[in-house]
Prior knowledge:
alpha+beta
Amino acid sequence: MRFLYPYFLRKRRCVKIKYRSFEDVKEVYGESNLCRICNIKQILTYAKMKVQPVWIDEGYGGRLIAYYFIPETKAAWKYWLENKPVIEMTEHNGPSARKEA
């Protein structure tokens, strides 16, 4: 059985909340208030900004999927848009390289 333990700090105490399934998470936060992120660089950026996912799952061929509560991610999302890594197109990774392969 899989558990996720998000931590919330309240009055210098750490409160542990345990969810047994993704259905429990959807019931607590509401499905429309959750965003799904599969980009590992974006997940790491959110982690650096101390934004915790409310649920972590595996999907899309074994890739990591993190579900975040949207109101908690507003500042991190703004930071991500301003600083996301840009991949420059070169002859080795551009569309012409794919055609030749």
